Amino acid sequence: MSFPVAATSFRVPQSGGQGGVPQSGSQAEVSQSGSQSGGSQSGSSQEGEKKAPYVQYEVEPGFTIRMRHNIDPAMDPKKLKRVIANRVSAQKSRWKKLLYVEALVKKSMELERETSVLRAQLEIAIQEKRRLQIEQRQLKETLAARFQDCIDEKGIIEFYKVEIERLKKKNMAPPTNPT
């Protein structure tokens, strides 16, 4: 919804009609609670009790403000413009605040969704890390066992080499007769 940049895009209603109330052709409407311009009647009000009339000013098409206080029809037009400009400004501020709060709520929901996705990803990463740590430990144990087997095999090979050399020397040596 677009708002007027300055409060100069509206017209102050001209006095006319009965009792200073603007005529139906002007840009402002006066209504009693639930009577002319579609105002709703609250369930707690009594039938005989009438609320103070309010004036609706259409600042732009689709953008109206309500003057909830009794306005003196003889009020200075400059003062009336200032009052209307203040009301427009206040309504814009409320509208901007609502938009800001809605944006914050949307951002909050988005961040909550992102947080839940990241938590799930973190849990998966933690499980993967544990699995990889277990695999690494198993590989280290296997490597250590194979290294030990290699060392043992080298030791056995060395033992056999020494034994072979000893036997060769024994077989090559001339036999000694004890007689």
Automatic annotation (TrEMBL):
Transmembrane segments: none
GO BP: positive regulation of DNA-templated transcription
Domain spans labelled BZIP: 76-139
Keyword Nucleus belongs to the record: yes
UniProt feature, compositional bias: Low complexity: 23-35
InterPro entries membership: bZIP, bZIP_RF2, bZIP_sf, bZIP_transcription_regulators
Gene Ontology molecular functions: DNA binding; DNA-binding transcription factor activity
Top-rank taxon: Eukaryota
GO cellular component: nucleus
Region (Disordered): 1-53
Alphabetical list of CDD domains matching this protein: bZIP_plant_RF2
Locations listed in the record: Nucleus
Keywords tagged on the record: Nucleus, Transcription, Transcription regulation
PANTHER family found in the cross-reference section: ACTIVATOR OF SPOMIN LUC3, BASIC LEUCINE ZIPPER 34
Protein known as: BZIP domain-containing protein
Organism: Capsella rubella
